[in-house]
Amino acid sequence: MPRRKGMMTGSRTRGRGHKKGRGAGLRGGRGNAGCHKTKRIMYERVGRVWGAHGFKRPQSVVSANNSINLKTIEENSDNWISEGIATKKGKVVSVDLNKMGYDKLLGTGSTEKTYKLTVNSASAKAVEKIESAGGEVING
Predict the structure, then answer these.
(1) What is the extent of the structural domain holding 48?
(2) pTM of the model
(3) Between vectors from CA 97 to CA 92 and to CA 103, what angle results, nearest 5°?
């Protein structure tokens, strides 16, 4: 047993005096207790601590678009045809992106095939690339 602990063992207060060692009274409470009163100066130095900060947008307003690029369609079109997700008539590949869960078509990548795509919205670049390849984009 270390010397100091040995010295204090058996004493009533262990060297803390009578009131100092009881509970959290010496430090003004535990945690954030007293931050509106005794510890206020510390919290005012830190910055804005109390009250509401900002706001939370309602989930009915917040909607994230699930988008897809032309590059992805070009890479997966053969698989989609074999799985029955897309249909092919002649050279035209028809894909309903709404049924697949996509909201928007983006123009990254290039197309070698002719596509007929059904989607809610599409970027101008994507529509331009599809139409230059002989396809069409249907808003649905």
Answers:
(1) 16-54
(2) 0.57
(3) 140
